[in-house]
Amino acid sequence: MSWLTVVDDGVELQILAVPRASRSRIVGVHDDRLKVQLAAPPADGAANDALVALFVELLGLKRSAVTLVSGHGSRQKRLRLAGVSPETMARQVP
């Protein structure tokens, strides 16, 4: 899983975000990144907020456990999930 890196307190994910989708969901892997469709537009940080909210909901995490590390203005993002194992994350990918 080249899109996933184990870090001290959890995992970091390499994300390819696709805003303005019909619904927010993980759709698979594309170019060594986890491809995530987001229902929100890319304006005013809405897509970033939707990305964080998606992982909070999917994994039952607290909002403080999910951090957008890089890619705030890009489709290529890096997301840190504290307290998540690689096995847990792998179960979420179709």
List keywords for this structure.
94 residues; alpha+beta; Conserved Hypothetical Protein Mth637, Chain: A; 2 helices; globular
Alpha-carbon distance between the two ends: 13 Å
- The computed structural class is alpha+beta
Helix-strand pattern: EEEEHEEH
Strand fraction band? 35-45%
What ranges have pLDDT less than 50 throughout 5 or more consecutive residues?
Answer: none
The CATH homology group name: YggU-like
Helical fraction equals 10-25%
Q: What is the CATH topology?
A: Conserved Hypothetical Protein Mth637, Chain: A
> What is the gyration radius calculated from CA atoms?
12 Å
The CATH class, by name, is Alpha Beta
Query: Any guess at the CATH architecture?
Result: 2-Layer Sandwich
Number of helices: 2
| Overall body shape | globular
Overall domain count: 1
In words, what does this structure look like?
With 94 residues, the protein is of the alpha+beta class. It has helices at residues 46-59, 86-90; strands spanning 4-7, 10-18, 25-30, 33-37, 66-70, 76-82. A hairpin with a 2-residue loop joins strand 1 and strand 2. The protein has one domain (4-90): Conserved Hypothetical Protein Mth637, Chain: A (2-Layer Sandwich), CATH 3.30.1200.10. Strands 1, 2, 3, 4, 5 and 6 form a 6-stranded mixed β-sheet that branches. The longest helix has 14 residues, at 46-59.
